[in-house]
Amino acid sequence: MSAKENYQEIIKKSLEILIEKESVAQKEICAKLLALDYKFSLASMSNLASGKDNIGSTTLKKAALGLQELLKIEYGLSFQESSKSFKAIPNSKTRIIIPEVAREKPKSNIPPPPFHFYDGRLDVPEKVAFFQQAQTEIVEVGVRLSKFKNYFLDVRESGFSDPIAQILEKGIDFNCFVLKPDGNFSRRYFEDRAEVLPMESIKFSTSQQELQALIKRFKEINKKGHPGQMKLHAYEHFPYFHATVIDGNTERAQMHISSYLYGLSRANSPVLQLSKRENKILFKKYWTSIKAFTTHSVFKLV
């Protein structure tokens, strides 16, 4: 089965559930997808529902991804490649209704609420408290995630490992992304930063070792059989930021985002805390970038 045929199958099965089984109108599906940042006109949705063959692969892929997110969040269903059907996610959480966003709200002269910021990397209790607010997914993007790995070893179990296990037990996945250590982007990034921060050259030399330790740690956790999984991916880009996002495709989404500032260690780069509800425009811009960053030139490791 080609990639295009696979997208068509996902769309077909998704719309069978939404339209035929759940009696969700096409207009309502479009509105819910818009809330997840997947924009489709009613005419496009009608074409998708009728299974027309002249729809491009890019549109089919976008529709397949959006519909999978919708069914995962609202109905606790996941598409299984082996059976080409949707199955219930074990220990799925209470159904979450995605708000329908059909129209842009009129612009207001009232400024948005201010965002909170930290003057550097969050302390472990702050990070754990942020993780614990998640209901569907946690995304963690970094360079090496060596500190994240070390928390499992250096912090008492009740302070980090146990809360992480409790989150995984709820069926919440951690999707983590690190810089591919043996690529040109990694070498050039660390060499450039080492001009003013000499320790960066040492970090580059140990990156492959750190990655193998992270892979080992994630596999050990996954062997415990939690419904949620520790997933690890490597990206081939220049690192631009560290990001932690919880429930990114829902209205209650929040993120911590820290741009990597030249001349400052990553631990001392300021961290912004953004809420999709309160900082809608700023959140959307960062979330769009994060999704692109974690979709293109990315390789699954665990």
Oligomer: single chain
Class from helix and strand fractions: alpha+beta
Supply the number of helical segments. 11
User: Beta-sheet strand percentage?
Assistant: 15-25%
**Sheet with the most strands, sense and barrel status:** 8 strands, mixed
Task: Tell me what the structure shows.
The chain contains 11 helices and 10 strands. It is α+β, with helices and mostly antiparallel strands and 302 residues long. It has an 8-stranded mixed β-sheet with strand order 3-9-8-7-4-5-6-10, sandwiched between helices. Strands 1-2 form a two-stranded antiparallel sheet. Helix 1 (3-21) crosses helix 4 (57-75) and helix 8 (184-194) packs antiparallel against helix 9 (199-205). The longest helix is centred in the first third of the chain and has 19 residues, at 3-21. The chain is globular, with a radius of gyration of 20 Å. The two termini are 25 Å apart.
Please sum up the structure shown.
The chain is α+β, with helices and mostly antiparallel strands and 302 residues long. It contains eleven helices and ten strands.
